[in-house]
Design a protein that fits this description.
It is built from 3 helices and 4 strands; from the N terminus they run βαβαβαβ. With 124 residues, it is α+β, with helices and mostly antiparallel strands. A 4-stranded antiparallel β-sheet has the order 2-3-1-4.
C-alpha cells in the first residue's frame, strides 16, 4: 500500500452550533479536496463513554451542552499534507472560519496531530 498521512482532530461542538459547524465542515471538505486532500471525514460521537481517566469526552473537557466530533483528512504524505494545508490556509473561503471569535466550536479545547499510517486494510 502506498504511504499515506493523516491529520486527526478531536473537538467539542456546542449543540446549538451544530448546523453552523456542519456548514463549515462541508465547506472545509470542499476546500481541502480541491487543494489535493485524498479524503476528508467529519464524524460525531455516537458511542463514546466518559472514562475514569481518559476518554474522548474528557479529552476536550466536554460540557453537557456539547458533542464530541472526530475528524480526519488523508494525504499522500506529510509533505503533501503541508502543501495542501498551506493552500487551504490561503483560501479566502476559509478566512471567516479562522477567527476564534466566530468559530462554531471552542478551538482552545480542540486537539489534533499528524500521523504516519503503519497498517491499513481496504476491501478487495
Amino acid at each position: 500500500m502506498p504511504t499515506r498521512y493523516v491529520d486527526g482532530f478531536v473537538l467539542p461542538v456546542p449543540m446549538r452550533n451544530k448546523a453552523a459547524y456542519l456548514r463549515m465542515a462541508r465547506l472545509a471538505a470542499k476546500v481541502w479536496m480541491e487543494h489535493g486532500a485524498l479524503e476528508y471525514f467529519e464524524s460525531v460521537a455516537d458511542d463514546v463513554p466518559a472514562g475514569k481517566l481518559t476518554s474522548f469526552p474528557r479529552s476536550v473537557k466536554l460540557k453537557r451542552t456539547e458533542e464530541v466530533w472526530f475528524s480526519w483528512i488523508v494525504y499522500k504524505s506529510r509533505k503533501h499534507r503541508d502543501q495542501v494545508n498551506a493552500k487551504v490556509m490561503q483560501d479566502p473561503r476559509m478566512a471567516k472560519f479562522m477567527d476564534p471569535k466566530t468559530m462554531p466550536l471552542d478551538a482552545e479545547r480542540m486537539f489534533y496531530g499528524g500521523f504516519k499510517i503503519k497498517v491499513a486494510s481496504k476491501p478487495r
